[in-house]
Write a structure and sequence with these properties.
- Belongs to the enoyl-CoA hydratase/isomerase family.
- This is Enoyl-CoA hydratase/isomerase family protein.
- Pfam families: ECH_1.
- It contains 9 helices and 11 strands.
- Helices cover 38% and strands 17% of the residues.
- The chain has helices at residues 27-42, 108-112, 139-144, 150-159, 167-172, 185-197, 201-223, 226-233, 237-245, and strands at 3-8, 11-16, 48-53, 58-60, 96-100, 103-105, 117-120, 125-127, 163-166, 178-179, 254-255.
- The strands form 2 sheets. It has a 6-stranded mixed sheet, sandwiched between helices.
- It has a single domain, classed as Alpha-Beta Complex (2-enoyl-CoA Hydratase, Chain A, domain 1), CATH 3.90.226.10.
Length: 256
């Protein structure tokens, strides 16, 4: 299993459990996440959720590069398995708190953008590698544009692998709501989730839905342009692979 799910005190804890792959999302993990979110919709014993990653090196590093996703031969159509990976995309309106440590990058933003808030320990680092490898950062940019100041999200998405946002900086700009002690992210997220699970669930879910309503119209309009932007701007797959193979030649990234 690539997920670990447990329930306690009204809180469901979902752990991305592929530490040997830095919790990258293969297609099986995506399917399991969709099933878990939909299962939680009908499980009244779960009133709040914590999402985290196994190991200490990464929360999630996005789509597994070994995942094969067939694409239609059209610039107007794009099959992206991560578009349905988050809780809100699966009609789950119970609050979800992310406990972040280590690397969170690329496709991880599909998940983080659909969590209601993030807590992180000092090891957390946020970045997006798309531009470094000749790919358009479309959906990830659009998702993070509702969670961070415009200049900060632009810098993160454009700088690619050359730079990472530290947990401290993420807290300063509001992406992270709480910066914990080392290895304290899960404990802090559970504390918050247990509080939320103790409140009347209708009021909590209604507030979650209201917060999402304020964002979803903007996202829908932006998402309509994403397939064409990706089709026009991405380098051919072979060229992307060449750039990825040379990824360690530029020295360590700047962490700010």
């Amino acid at each position: 299993m690539s997920l670990d799910v447990r329930r306690e005190k009204g809180v469901g804890v979902v752990t991305l459990d592929r530490p040997e792959r830095l919790n990258a999302l293969d297609l099986a993990t995506v399917r399991e996440l969709v099933e878990v979110w939909r299962e939680f919709r009908f499980d009244d014993s779960v009133r709040a959720v914590v999402l985290t990653g196994a190991g200490r090196r990464a929360f999630c590093t996005g789509i597994d590069r070994d995942a094969v996703v067939p694409q239609p031969n059209s610039p107007y159509s794009l099959d992206d398995p991560l578009l349905r990976v988050g809780p809100k995309s699966n009609d789950l309106w119970k609050p979800v708190v992310a406990a972040v440590h280590g690397m969170a990058c690329g496709g991880a933003f599909y998940l983080l953008a659909e969590c209601d808030f993030l807590v992180a320990d000092p090891s957390a680092e946020f970045f997006d590698p798309h531009t470094s490898y000749g790919m358009v950062c479309a959906y990830e940019s659009m998702l993070m544009a509702t969670r961070m100041p415009a200049g900060e999200v632009a810098r993160m998405m454009l700088m690619g692998t050359a730079e990472r946002i530290s947990a401290r900086r993420a807290h300063e700009v509001g992406l992270v709501s709480e910066l914990t002690e080392p290895e304290g992210d899960l404990t802090a997220a559970l504390r918050c989730a247990e509080v939320l699970a103790g409140y009347p669930t209708e009021a909590v879910q209604g507030t979650v839905r209201a917060l999402w309503a304020a964002q979803e119209g903007v996202r829908e309009r932006a998402f309509a342009q994403a397939p064409q932007l990706i089709a026009l701007g991405n380098l051919p797959a072979g060229r992307q692979a060449e750039l990825f193979a040379r990824r360690r030649t530029g020295g360590p990234p700047l962490v700010r």
